[in-house]
UniProtKB/TrEMBL annotation:
<dbReference type="InterPro" id="IPR016193">
    <property type="entry name" value="Cytidine_deaminase-like"/>
</dbReference>
<feature type="binding site">
    <location>
        <position position="90"/>
    </location>
    <ligand>
        <name>Zn(2+)</name>
    </ligand>
</feature>
<keyword id="KW-0862">Zinc</keyword>
<comment type="function">
    <text>This enzyme scavenges exogenous and endogenous cytidine and 2'-deoxycytidine for UMP synthesis.</text>
</comment>
<feature type="binding site">
    <location>
        <position position="87"/>
    </location>
    <ligand>
        <name>Zn(2+)</name>
    </ligand>
</feature>
<dbReference type="GO" id="GO:0004126">
    <property type="term" value="F:cytidine deaminase activity"/>
</dbReference>
<dbReference type="Pfam" id="PF00383">
    <property type="entry name" value="dCMP_cyt_deam_1"/>
</dbReference>
<dbReference type="InterPro" id="IPR050202">
    <property type="entry name" value="Cyt/Deoxycyt_deaminase"/>
</dbReference>
<dbReference type="GO" id="GO:0072527">
    <property type="term" value="P:pyrimidine-containing compound metabolic process"/>
</dbReference>
<feature type="binding site">
    <location>
        <position position="52"/>
    </location>
    <ligand>
        <name>Zn(2+)</name>
    </ligand>
</feature>
<dbReference type="GO" id="GO:0008270">
    <property type="term" value="F:zinc ion binding"/>
</dbReference>
<dbReference type="InterPro" id="IPR016192">
    <property type="entry name" value="APOBEC/CMP_deaminase_Zn-bd"/>
</dbReference>
<comment type="similarity">
    <text>Belongs to the cytidine and deoxycytidylate deaminase family.</text>
</comment>
<feature type="binding site">
    <location>
        <begin position="41"/>
        <end position="47"/>
    </location>
    <ligand>
        <name>substrate</name>
    </ligand>
</feature>
<dbReference type="InterPro" id="IPR002125">
    <property type="entry name" value="CMP_dCMP_dom"/>
</dbReference>
<keyword id="KW-0378">Hydrolase</keyword>
<dbReference type="GO" id="GO:0055086">
    <property type="term" value="P:nucleobase-containing small molecule metabolic process"/>
</dbReference>
């Protein structure tokens, strides 16, 4: 069902800039009108400035005028033996920028898991708490 965004996320992974970890991640957002926005992880010698693939993809989506209600799904892919689940920072960003139950598809070359941000970040702190 999600073959196309998974494939596009794997294409994005090819563009990862990972001289430090050598761990490539790709992401692809599918919008409700059928557009795709991709991201790859881009590292930096000042490690903390690294931007994860899923954050790059979601920021691209918003930069093109789309908002959470226009997002159908996001795929995050890696080549490791285990799935790349979003880091804490990305979970916080995704919590604000996608709907609670929007499918998040995690995939490597062997397996897939479909989850959502409600599962990945329960009891999230968000703008309604301010
Ligand atoms: N990374 C991502 O891009 N997304 C994830 O879901 C997990 C981690 C990146 C950050 C860093 O460039 C590399 O993977 C190793 O942590």
């Amino acid at each position: 069902m999600y073959e196309e965004i998974i494939e596009k996320a794997f294409n994005a992974l090819e563009n990862a800039y990972v001289p430090y970890s050598n761990y490539r991640v790709g992401a692809c957002v599918l919008t409700t009108d059928g557009k795709h926005f991709i991201g790859a992880n881009i590292e930096n010698a000042s490690y903390g400035l690294t931007n994860c693939a899923e954050r790059n993809a979601i920021f691209q989506t918003y930069s093109n005028g789309y908002r959470k209600e226009n997002i159908e799904a996001i795929a995050i892919v890696c080549e490791g033996k285990t799935l790349a689940t979003p880091c804490g920072a990305c979970r916080q960003v995704l919590d604000e920028l996608i709907e609670k139950e929007t499918p998040i598809i995690l995939s490597n070359r062997k397996m897939q898991k479909v989850t959502n941000i409600k599962e990945l970040l329960p009891y999230a702190f968000g703008k309604d708490d301010l």
